[in-house]
Known about the structure:
Number of domains: 1
Radius of gyration: 18 Å
Structural class: mainly beta
Order of helices and strands: EEEEEEEHEHEEEHEEEEE
Mean pLDDT: 91
Amino acid sequence: xxxxxxxxxxxxxxxxxxxxxxxxxxxxxxxxxxxxxxxxxxxxxxxxxxxxxxxxxxxxxxxxxxxxxxxxxxxxxxxxxxxxxxxxxxxxxxxxxxxxxxxxxxxxxxxxxxxxxxxxxxxxxxxxxxxxxxxxxxxxxxxxxxxxxxxxxxxxxxxxxxxxxxxxxxxxxxxxxxxxxxxxxxxxxxxxxxxxxxxxxxxxxxxxxxxxxxxxxxxxxxxxxxxxxxxxxxxxxxxxxxxxxxxxxxxxxxxxxxxxxxxxxxxxxxxxxxxxxxxxxxxxxxxxxxxxxxxxxxxxxxx
Length: 303
């Protein structure tokens, strides 16, 4: 780890499993990396994998299906490790505004108005509806922490655009961890409070969410073991395309965000493409009461 809290990553990790640490917006976060086999959780009749223990003690999970899946397992049918396919922002990809999990005023001449959190993206509405049905209406919300999700709309050092309208704009993850010196060092801190999505917390977060649900970030994928080359051995691999929450760029009249491809390369997705939606949620620190975290004995909220 570097002095500024970033982590230098030079290759994928598929062979070994590690528990590593890096600072986040709450303190020290402990994240799982590589071929990890003790981060399974069963919650709400679904299986999840622990991405990390956040600095506030909450536990960040990513959806992994209705049954447990071994690392390296290839999809036997569509969406088996997601809640379904969704566009990121419907057919709305012709303005910088639409890289937002929530977005402001398309065609605006100011960065602040463009990236205000006024309207829901298509994928946010999709995840909110799933949360309402599968968490809220099943009386499981009491286990969920209001810990932030990062939709980092800060600009890349390679950027010359304004982040508004159709200005050619490169966001922090534009050039990827393999080319861009600033993005070669993933981090778990989120640089702008406007991009720190929470429900009620307006001290650390923005308080703009309806439900405490989001997507994984590109930083989290890289720290978990992903990179620019194929990686079939680490715990996030599904053999299918899925969205991250990290903006990519606005280029040639298309807005895009980062996506993980079916061969696990971290690339980009035009917003009106349909890819897997894999929700992330945060459990409260004391929620998991039993289990050992293995595929056959996942962590659980009760005995």
